[in-house]
Design a protein that fits this description.
Blueprint: H1 2-11, H2 13-42, E1 55-58, E2 62-63, E3 71-72, E4 79-80, H3 82-90, E5 95-99, E6 102-106, E7 112-118, E8 129-132, E9 140-144, H4 145-150, E10 158-162, E11 168-176, E12 186-190, H5 192-198, E13 204-205, E14 207-211, H6 220-226, E15 230-231, H7 238-241, H8 244-281, H9 283-291, H10 296-336, H11 350-374, H12 392-414, H13 416-419, H14 423-455, H15 463-474, H16 476-514, E16 519-522, H17 530-537, E17 542-556, E18 564-571, H18 574-580, E19 597-601, H19 602-608, E20 615-619, E21 625-634, H20 637-640, E22 643-645, H21 647-653, E23 661-666, H22 672-682, E24 690-692, H23 707-735, H24 738-746, H25 751-788, H26 802-827
Parallel strand pairs: 7-12, 9-11, 18-22, 19-21
Antiparallel strand pairs: 1-14, 1-15, 2-3, 4-13, 5-14, 6-7, 6-10, 8-11, 10-11, 16-23, 16-24, 17-18, 17-20, 17-23, 19-22, 20-21
Length: 832
């Protein structure tokens, strides 16, 4: 059988090339996602900021999760300043250096966020002062050499720096060798007195460096463990230097894992459709083998032997090309800002082994399933008929039943939000489109025949149209093999478009309905201090000014086995929240929180399985853990955030210790334009603030890049793989039509007529794929928007810009591949 398999591969080079190409690109995609996953787990960004300290003590930057990947703390976790005194008492002859961090804004034509440190912290790392001196007196600053060059600043020049309020003048006395290209904010150095004078959280420190003396570090480890701190090893200090990488790597890991699982499913689906098409085309050949004495088992071994080597070679090549593609995708993430600029790709065993294993297993499983349909235990004489009938009526009934069962499952999953609420219902609805699209595989012959009957009347006015539709009906299973992956691609794209558009539409509706503030002043990471808020409150035409703080928290529900959820949080006090927005609490009335209470949006409460009166655990942005009682559940969480806490909780956990925004209402005789211009005049000397008319307050410490954009990149690459599967299916289907083309030539069909037949068949596949793919995405999108809107809306929003693009790309892909096949119809003129 090995010799026969080798010979059949040589005799079917086109079909083998189609399978090889499909499996190869599947392996490349899996290798790329494997590299992204490993980079998210083991990648590190280090700036050398803490490289020299022999012992470095810092707070843990992640929340441990039992039997799962730890969740990164939303911001920078800090240590209490009292720990410094205990460290000094524990190792009295050691040298101890403390680092504090203070967000600031460097004024200029383009205000730039920076991070201020005390000058003593230079000793913790390998950064040196290459020009000038360290700051010795108040009002002195040391800048990175690269930043000074970009700003055309030299030693002795004056710069303005703001710490949540009005900018202050500092003199540049030194330049460092720091390379800050891999971080969001450059590091500057001030005197310890200036740090304390401008910081709202001077009772906390970022890191403690210890140079042990003669007594070593006895007792230091016990002290650190008792306070819940961590002694950071040299290889892991990047997590403490660039804390943003924790959230970025978590996004990378979750996106790569989710798309990796989706890719495995799509690989099985597309390879199965392609191999099924090939095996069906060879039904006469396989039946003849059985007629001359080969057993069903031997025929299956032949088919497996043919594809095994092809899949193995494709997997090996993919294990090399996949990491290269993954490295390029990491570069795209760094360029877009989704990933830190200094995060380098990490290559391990995962992106090398997974492509080979999945390629071989998917190919073998697909060919075994396809062979079972054609190579049955009955008489081989029925297979000599060839065509779509070769699989037999029992196989067709089984296929129909399986397809209907999967379709019913998908529709039931889409309807889950109407049956019950919770995160599970939303997740089922989101996955239902994929399940419905997968059901098109076994149902594709019936879908093709039904579509052909629908268009038969208006599209059969000419001979070529009639012949094309007749071919489609008679070759329904083969045409379905091309249709199925195209439908999957359209459905995945539409699901993403519908989900994003629907979520945006629901959020916009909630914001419009709940808006109360007229103007919002947004600050960067440096925040807004109380004096600035008081200054704005004195502006004519401003009726009220309230400080609010936005951020991100990690929350766990009341059950012991509840999963941690990362949710946006808003901090507001008393009447200030009511003046900012109406969140539509259940039961009505204003939303007012006591110091030990929390309010949750409907979606957030469903994720946490929490009800009013339950106790939830919250990890704030600075790593502190608090317990709060659920006081209220509100309906407009998608528009304004799923968690509301008292302002004191959120403000104290921001990087600056300040509020992140001011919300204002105007008097009746003041327009928005007048109010905005007056406030802008008041804040002329406050760099980094922005006046917006949108009432949504965002987290200033959130990633610069949009994680959703990176997921779109992954979806585009996955869709590209599906496109390759579509083209391969078209190639395989048309390579098997030599006899048909010969017959057309014999009965007098001209080359141009044969070409038009191929074009009409491709147009039929393109239109059917778009219609069926969009229809498959609608039930899941409807269920999702119903869940997100709390039952207020069931019609999904349509991305008017994206949907036509999907239709055009799908049509161009299928028609382009069909045109190549149609040209072969024109040029091939076998003798009858």
């Amino acid at each position: 059988m090995k010799d026969i398999a080798r010979l059949t591969r040589r005799g079917r080079r086109g079909q083998v090339a189609a399978v090889f190409t499909t499996v190869l690109f599947s392996a490349i995609l899996l290798g790329a996602l494997g590299l992204l996953f490993e980079t998210g787990l083991r990648g590190q960004v280090s700036t050398g900021e803490y490289a020299k300290a022999p012992v470095l003590i810092g707070a843990p930057q992640s929340v441990p999760v039992k039997e799962d990947v730890d969740i990164a703390v939303p911001g920078r976790a800090l240590l209490p300043e009292s720990l410094v005194d205990e460290v000094t008492r524990t190792v009295p002859d050691a040298r101890v250096v403390v680092d504090q961090v203070l967000p600031a804004v460097l004024a200029g034509r383009d205000p730039l966020p920076v991070t201020a440190h005390p000058g003593e912290a230079l000793a913790l790392g390998d950064r040196t002062v290459v020009a000038g001196t360290t700051p010795q007196s108040a009002g002195e600053v040391v800048l990175p050499r690269g930043l000074a060059a970009d700003r055309s600043v030299d030693l002795g020049d004056a710069v303005d720096i703001a710490f949540g309020g009005e900018a202050r003048r500092f003199t540049v006395v030194g330049l460092t060798s720091a390379d800050d290209t891999g971080v969001d904010a450059a590091d500057i150095y001030l005197t310890g007195a200036d740090i304390g004078r401008n910081s709202a959280r001077d009772d906390q420190v970022a890191a403690i460096g210890v140079w042990p003396g003669s007594e070593g570090t006895r007792g230091l480890r016990e002290l650190v463990d008792r306070h819940g701190a961590v002694v950071w090893d040299e290889g892991r200090r990047g997590e403490l230097e660039v804390v943003r990488q924790g959230q970025a790597k978590a996004t990378l890991t979750s996106a790569a894992g989710a798309f990796g699982g989706l890719t495995v499913i799509v690989t099985l689906f597309t390879v199965m459709a392609l191999t099924s098409l090939q095996v069906r085309e060879r039904s006469r050949e396989l039946a003849m083998l059985r007629v001359i004495g080969a057993t069903s088992r031997q025929v299956r071994q032949l088919l497996v032997g043919e594809i095994r080597r092809v899949a193995l070679v494709a997997g090996i090549i993919g294990s090399v090309g996949g990491p290269l593609l993954g490295a390029c995708m990491v570069g795209v993430g760094r360029w877009s800002g989704t990933l830190p600029a200094g995060l380098d790709p990490v290559v391990g065993l995962l992106p090398v082994v997974i492509p080979v294993v999945v390629a071989v297993l998917a190919a073998e499983a697909s060919v075994r399933i396809a062979a079972r349909r054609v190579v049955g235990r009955g008489s081989p004489l029925s297979g000599l008929r060839g065509g779509d009938e070769a699989s037999g009526p029992s196989s067709s009934r089984t296929r129909l039943a399986a397809g209907l069962a999967v379709l019913a499952l998908g529709i039931a999953m889409a309807a889950a939000p109407w049956a019950f609420s919770g995160d599970g219902a939303t997740g089922l609805s989101g996955l239902s489109s994929l399940v419905i699209a997968l059901s098109i595989g076994p149902l594709s012959p019936w879908v093709v025949r039904s579509a052909a009957r629908i268009v038969q009347g208006p599209a059969t006015r000419g001979a070529t149209q009639y012949l094309a539709l007749s071919n489609v009906r008679l070759r329904a299973a083969r045409v379905g093999g091309v249709l199925a992956p195209a439908v999957l691609g359209v459905t995945l794209s539409c699901t993403q478009l519908f989900a994003n558009a629907s979520a945006g539409a629901v959020a916009s509706d909630q914001v419009d309905a709940g808006r109360r503030a007229d103007l919002v002043v947004m600050a960067g990471p440096s925040g807004i201090d109380r004096s600035t808020a008081e200054k704005v409150a004195e502006t004519p035409g401003i009726r009220s000014v309230d400080q609010v703080a936005a951020g991100t928290v990690v929350v766990r529900g009341p059950a012991d086995d509840s999963a941690w959820q990362v949710l946006p949080v808003l901090g507001a006090d008393g009447d200030g929240l009511a003046r900012y927005a109406d969140l539509d609490p259940r039961g009505g009335g204003p939303l007012v929180l006591a110091p030990d209470e929390i309010a949750l949006g409907v979606q957030g409460a469903d994720m946490l399985y929490a009800e009013i009166g339950d106790q939830v655990t919250v990890v704030l942005g600075d790593g502190r853990t608090i317990d709060r009682r659920v006081a209220t559940i509100y309906r407009r969480g998608l528009g304004f955030g799923e968690v509301v806490l008292p302002l004191a909780d959120v403000r104290s956990a921001t990087a600056s210790g300040q509020a992140t925004a001011m919300v204002m209402t105007l008097s009746r005789d003041t327009t928005e334009q007048q109010g905005a211009s007056r406030v802008a005049e008041r804040l002329r000397d406050h760099p980094g603030v922005e006046i917006v008319r949108s009432p949504v307050v965002s987290d200033p410490e959130a990633s610069v890049g949009d994680p959703a954009s990176f997921q779109v990149v992954l979806l585009v690459i996955l869709w590209g793989y599906i496109a390759i599967a579509v083209v391969s299916s078209l190639v395989v289907g048309n390579l098997a039509r030599r006899a048909e083309l010969t017959l057309l030539h014999a009965v007098g069909a001209t080359p141009a007529q044969r070409q038009r037949v191929g074009r009409w068949e491709a147009a039929f596949v393109a239109v059917t794929a778009c219609v069926v793919g969009i229809a498959a995405a609608v039930p899941g999108a409807s269920g999702l928007v119903y869940a997100l809107s709390n039952g207020d809306r069931a019609i999904p929003a349509i991305a008017l810009g994206g949907l036509p693009l999907v239709v055009v790309l799908t049509s161009a892909l299928v028609l382009g591949a069909g045109e190549l096949s149609a040209r072969s119809f024109r040029t091939r003129s076998q003798r009858p």
